[in-house]
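Worked example 3 (structure in, sequence out).
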């Protein structure tokens, strides 16, 4: 028998209905795309596999090359997994305030970790990755500027949701980090039905939500096109964290803070529409946030 390897199980994640978060009187349907079911535990498995496989196909990388990437966590874990599958050494650069679970997961896959300070943040991590590439220390995949990132969602996530909803989706809600998910899905949905509304989530000023950012203009991902987003919601850290806990306790869906924010935005949206089919991305699993104390009984 010919058995598949683990990369064959990236994608085709479940889409489930929220049971209790919407009021009983609501005419809307809230559906949650469980991207934590990917092999390395997040939506970033899709672009990680896409960026490496398509770079191989173009001969941009070849066996033995060292890969380099700046990451806040999920992309790094996903890239570390794909690099392990395909035999590439990889160096990941991340802010030192990322959770211990994220750091440990990358190391478990064999990645070399370089930490920058919280103050340097993702901007500093991205700058260092490019300096290392210029010094000949490896090749940067650059999730922020790499069209293979949104392409993974245009070819995978979007079509899956369209099929799972029988083309009935009316609103799509996604947190925005690299913006690959929302860019790829928006492109696909608008091609099928221009009336589908695309809602992006960013943290409000002063809020820190892992995995999503309000980028300074100089660092805004070049894959981002604001014409593909119909509405941007600014979310408070407290509301995102509270909704994250409610998802676990009321729906049995254990996820991270950015997913809580996306669902909070979807619930706000549901207050102003009727008979809508709203799909929100649950981008990862909650177990990589346990050391933060966000799920403690007193929270």
């Amino acid at each position: 028998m010919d058995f598949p390897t683990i990369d064959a199980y990236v994608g085709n994640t479940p889409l489930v209905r929220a049971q209790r978060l919407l009021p009983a009187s609501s005419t809307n349907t809230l559906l949650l795309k469980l991207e934590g079911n990917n092999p390395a535990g997040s939506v970033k498995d899709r672009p990680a596999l896409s960026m490496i496989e398509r770079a191989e196909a173009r001969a941009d990388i070849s066996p033995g090359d060292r890969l380099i990437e700046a990451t806040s966590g999920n992309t790094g874990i996903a890239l570390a997994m794909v690099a392990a599958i395909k035999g590439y050494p990889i160096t990941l650069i991340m802010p030192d305030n990322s959770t211990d679970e994220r750091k440990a997961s990358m190391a478990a896959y064999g990645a070399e970790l370089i930490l920058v300070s919280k103050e340097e943040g993702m901007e500093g991590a991205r700058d260092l990755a490019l300096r290392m590439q210029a010094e000949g220390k490896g090749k940067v995949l650059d999730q922020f500027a790499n069209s293979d990132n949104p392409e993974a969602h245009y070819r995978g996530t979007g079509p899956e949701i369209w099929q799972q909803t029988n083309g009935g989706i009316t609103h799509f809600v996604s947190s925005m980090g690299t913006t690959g998910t929302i860019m790829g899905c928006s492109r696909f949905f608008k091609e099928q039905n221009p009336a589908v509304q695309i809602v992006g989530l960013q943290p409000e000023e002063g809020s820190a939500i892992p995995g999503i950012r309000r980028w300074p203009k100089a660092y805004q991902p070049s894959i981002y096109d604001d014409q593909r987003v119909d509405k941007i919601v600014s979310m408070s850290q407290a509301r995102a964290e509270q909704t994250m806990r409610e998802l676990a306790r009321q729906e049995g869906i254990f996820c991270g803070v950015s997913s809580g924010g996306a669902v909070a935005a979807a619930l706000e949206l549901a207050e102003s529409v009727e008979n809508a089919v709203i799909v929100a991305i649950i981008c990862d699993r909650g177990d990589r946030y346990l050391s933060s104390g966000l799920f403690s009984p007193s929270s």
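Notes: The chain has a mean pLDDT of 94. The first strand starts at residue 15 and ends at 17.
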